[in-house]
């Protein structure tokens, strides 16, 4: 009898605890401030619209009581962040928005904004680009000795190609590209033994006097497929090309996504590059024009030197090597601009008969006369590296 009474008492207590705990948990959950990260797309008085990283558009009211902090790219400690006003913000700025859980209006109100100015991000990216230009090396892996931390890389193309010995230490930051991306932001930490012969390899570090050795501070690598061939068919509805690979003599279906970078080489430029790859003077005589960097200043190397170095822009790399930079500056094209029978060169995801294009170059008929050198050129052009994709965490 006593046992039954205890059981009833325990059941009653359990029910009472549920009645207390469930509402309490719900209340705590409701009080936890919601937060999201994105880019300011518009500002209208005290109202801002933010396009979140998830692709949503959120409108938020920023009352006078909201705390707004300006965080420098790479900075993590809010205690050292500068307090700014709403009028200091601009479209294009990155923000972390913490919503006020006690706000009762129809429009969400911000409790705190942590902002990263677009101008600060651009300045940081330019600094990183300059650093990679001065101290970066990129190319194809010829050999890897993971035990000793030594990687041999061939950089450049044609007669200007040279071998660089990369020394990896315990402090070297090692990352590897996602299989379908050359965006540095998509790269993930990976051990050195993940690197294979033939991989694309980008390294930042301290070079020796002649550039034949480099002590790496940061590395990003990846396995991609380089294809040279002729377009045998085009399906604009399915956003695909069928390319007959000159190396395998087999057709490859190439998927073209919105992220694919496609460019066309002008005929004269293609002939000049082809002459360089063969080791002769540029077609038509004369030196090639100096390539220019993204900011419009003259690059440190003359176009056609074949040297390659990385840049941090959080996107497929703007190669600082002369030839690679020329490819980056070639006119962009769309799938509709490509014709059946044209020669193409592309960097794609790995796959035997079905791949996704990462970068694609049209107007390359003269380049295919030197397929090996052209392959190395395309490999250097395809790399993406460096930081520069600063976001507010």
In short:
The chain is of the alpha+beta class and 393 residues long. It has helices at 2-31, 118-135, 267-278, 322-329, 371-382, and strands at 35-44, 47-52, 57-61, 67-70, 82-83, 94-99, 110-116, 136-145, 150-155, 162-167, 173-176, 188-189, 200-207, 213-222, 225-235, 240-245, 251-255, 261-264, 343-348, 354-362.
Mean pLDDT: 77
Indicate the CATH topology of the largest domain.
Answer: OB fold (Dihydrolipoamide Acetyltransferase, E2P)
Top CATH class of the largest domain = Mainly Beta
- Give the N-to-C terminal Cα separation: 60 Å
What features would you describe in this structure?
The chain has 393 residues and is α+β, with helices and mostly antiparallel strands. It has three domains: 36-119, Beta Barrel (OB fold (Dihydrolipoamide Acetyltransferase, E2P)), CATH 2.40.50; 126-222, Copper binding periplasmic protein CusF (OB fold (Dihydrolipoamide Acetyltransferase, E2P)); 225-382, Copper binding periplasmic protein CusF (OB fold (Dihydrolipoamide Acetyltransferase, E2P), Beta Barrel), CATH 2.40.50.320. The protein has five helices and 20 strands. The protein has helices spanning 2-31, 118-135, 267-278, 322-329, 371-382; strands at residues 35-44, 47-52, 57-61, 67-70, 82-83, 94-99, 110-116, 136-145, 150-155, 162-167, 173-176, 188-189, 200-207, 213-222, 225-235, 240-245, 251-255, 261-264, 343-348, 354-362. The strands form three sheets. It has a seven-stranded mixed beta sheet. The chain has a five-stranded mixed β-barrel with strand order 8-9-10-14-13. Helix 4 packs across helix 5 (371-382). The protein is globular and about 70 Å long. Mean pLDDT is 77; it is low at 1-6, 16-32, 282-321 and 387-393.
């Amino acid at each position: 009898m006593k046992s039954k009474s205890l059981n009833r008492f325990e059941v009653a207590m359990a029910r009472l605890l549920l009645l207390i705990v469930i509402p309490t948990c719900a209340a705590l959950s409701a009080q936890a401030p919601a937060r999201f990260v994105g880019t300011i797309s518009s500002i209208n008085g005290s109202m801002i619209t933010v396009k979140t990283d998830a692709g949503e558009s959120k409108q938020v009211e920023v009352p006078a009581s909201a705390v707004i902090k300006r965080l420098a790219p790479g900075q993590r400690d809010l205690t050292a962040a500068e307090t700014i006003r709403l009028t200091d913000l601009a479209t294009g700025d990155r923000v972390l928005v913490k919503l006020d859980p006690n706000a009762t209006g129809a429009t969400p109100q911000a409790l705190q904004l942590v902002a990263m100015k677009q101008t600060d991000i651009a300045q940081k990216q330019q600094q990183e680009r300059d650093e990679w230009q001065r101290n970066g090396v990129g190319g194809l892996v010829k050999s890897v000795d993971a035990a000793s931390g030594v990687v041999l890389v061939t950089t450049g193309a044609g007669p200007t190609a040279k071998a660089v010995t990369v020394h990896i230490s315990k402090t070297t930051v090692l990352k590897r590209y996602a299989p379908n991306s050359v965006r540095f932001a998509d790269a993930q930490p990976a051990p050195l033994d993940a690197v294979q012969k033939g991989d694309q390899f980008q390294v930042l570090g301290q070079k020796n006097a002649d550039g034949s050795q480099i002590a790496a501070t940061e590395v990003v690598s990846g396995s991609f497929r380089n294809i040279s061939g002729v377009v045998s068919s085009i399906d604009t509805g399915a956003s695909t090309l069928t390319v007959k690979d000159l190396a395998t003599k087999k057709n490859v279906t190439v998927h073209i996504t919105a992220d694919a970078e496609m460019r066309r080489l002008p005929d004269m430029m293609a002939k000049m590059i082809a002459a360089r790859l063969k080791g002769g003077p540029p077609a038509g005589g004369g030196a090639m024009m100096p390539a220019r960097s993204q900011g419009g200043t003259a690059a440190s190397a003359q176009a056609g030197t074949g040297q390659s170095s990385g840049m941090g822009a959080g996107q497929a790399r703007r190669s600082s090597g002369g030839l690679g930079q020329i490819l980056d500056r070639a006119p962009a094209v769309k799938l509709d601009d490509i014709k059946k029978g044209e020669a193409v060169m592309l960097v794609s995801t790995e796959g035997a008969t079905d791949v996704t294009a990462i970068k694609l170059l049209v107007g390359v008929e003269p380049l295919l006369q030197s397929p090996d050198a052209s392959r190395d050129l395309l490999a250097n052009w395809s790399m993406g590296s460096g930081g520069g994709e600063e976001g507010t965490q």
